[in-house]
């Protein structure tokens, strides 16, 4: 199945005020409300302390901007429905599904023309493409390559979550393990609340394992001196000889974090006792409700 992906360039900066107000006036008859919306659009923006007039566009982050964007792009929805296309749109991102690449190229050209000539918006050609659904992303998701495809987390989204986890679990950052886990929990609970729609539980299990390994690395660095490492390992139930062997090892922090001795001692139960939340377990819980 081909995919025509259309993204509006700097959408909130490019909306034509007069055209938008005409569309709003078709539904809103109260002149006071229309005047307030017009003033909202023309309130201007502050750049480096200097206020500049707004001749087009809607304020980025403004409470009305998402609603006004949907009013503008409602015309696009109706046009795609009229043409009989299967599509999904959220704000200024839109995926249109067709059967062949040739059809995708044709639809992309015609829809681009509609957006630019009728809606007076600019299409971002760098982000727009005709490709297979599993090679594209939409709102952080993509699809698996199967006859019956599953929703998966897009590679770019996984890259971003790993960057965030790396920042929280950086061994260069002097932070107590309890504080790291608290920050991780706050971030991961919100992240999972969004991406629990994915049909790939193995991804969450893999992330759990990777997070625990990074925390083991942090603890090993935190213990610093060999005698401290030996003492900690013995307290965790490691025989003295084995604790002395590993406590005096010259292997790097990341390599040691995957060693059998830390894998057995700083295990799932250990991190559960520190209140680390499991992505896999929470995923199963969310999917079962």
Summary tags:
289 residues; alpha+beta; 4-stranded antiparallel sheet; two-stranded antiparallel ribbon; 14 helices; elongated
Could you provide a short overview of the structure?
The protein has 289 residues and is of the alpha+beta class.
Architecture blueprint of SSEs:
Elements: E1 2-7, H1 11-14, H2 17-25, H3 31-41, E2 45-47, E3 50-52, H4 65-83, E4 86-90, E5 93-98, H5 101-118, E6 129-130, E7 141-143, E8 151-153, H6 155-168, H7 177-195, H8 201-223, H9 226-235, H10 240-247, H11 253-256, H12 260-265, H13 268-273, H14 279-288
Antiparallel strand pairs: 1-5, 1-6, 2-3, 4-5, 7-8
Helix pairs in contact: 2-3, 7-14, 8-14, 9-10
Please explain how this structure is put together:
56% of the residues lie in helices and 11% in strands. It has 289 residues and is α+β, with helices and mostly antiparallel strands. The strands form three sheets. A four-stranded antiparallel β-sheet has the order 4-5-1-6, with helices on one face. Strands 2-3 form a two-stranded antiparallel ribbon. A two-stranded antiparallel sheet has the order 7-8. A hairpin with a 2-residue loop joins strand 2 (45-47) and strand 3. The longest helix is centred in the last third of the chain and has 23 residues, at 201-223. The chain starts with a strand and ends with a helix.
Mean pLDDT: 86
* Number of helices, counting only DSSP H or I runs of 4 residues or more: 14
Assess the beta-strand content as a share of residues. 5-15%
Name the shape in a single word. Answer: elongated
Series of H and E elements: EHHHEEHEEHEEEHHHHHHHHH
**C-alpha end-to-end distance:** 32 Å
The residue fraction in helices comes out at 55-70%
């Amino acid at each position: 199945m081909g995919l025509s992906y259309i993204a509006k360039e700097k959408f909130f900066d490019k909306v034509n005020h007069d055209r938008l107000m005409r569309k709003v006036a078709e539904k809103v008859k109260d002149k006071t409300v229309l005047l307030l919306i017009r003033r909202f659009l023309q309130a201007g923006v502050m750049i480096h302390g200097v206020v500049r007039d707004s001749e087009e566009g809607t304020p980025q982050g403004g409470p009305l901007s998402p609603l006004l964007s949907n009013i503008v792009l409602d015309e696009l929805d109706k046009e795609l429905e009229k043409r009989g296309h299967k599509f999904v749109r959220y704000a200024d991102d839109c995926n249109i599904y067709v059967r062949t690449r040739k059809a995708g190229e044709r639809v992309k050209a015609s829809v681009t023309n509609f957006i630019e000539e009728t809606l007076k918006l600019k299409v971002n050609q760098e982000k727009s493409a005709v490709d297979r659904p599993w090679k594209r992303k939409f709102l952080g998701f993509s699809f698996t390559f199967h006859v019956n495809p599953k929703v998966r987390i897009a590679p770019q989204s996984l890259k971003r979550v790993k960057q965030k986890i790396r920042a929280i679990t950086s061994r260069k950052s002097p932070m107590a393990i309890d504080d790291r886990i608290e920050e991780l929990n706050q971030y991961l609970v919100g992240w999972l609340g969004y991406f629990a729609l994915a049909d790939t539980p193995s991804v969450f299990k893999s992330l759990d394992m990777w997070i625990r390994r990074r925390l083991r690395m942090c603890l090993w660095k935190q213990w610093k001196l060999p005698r401290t490492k030996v003492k900690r390992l013995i307290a965790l139930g490691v025989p003295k000889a084995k604790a002395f062997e590993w406590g005096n090892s010259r292997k790097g922090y990341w390599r040691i974090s995957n060693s059998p001795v830390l894998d057995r001692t700083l295990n799932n139960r250990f991190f559960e006792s520190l209140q680390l939340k499991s992505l896999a377990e929470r995923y199963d819980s969310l999917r079962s409700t």
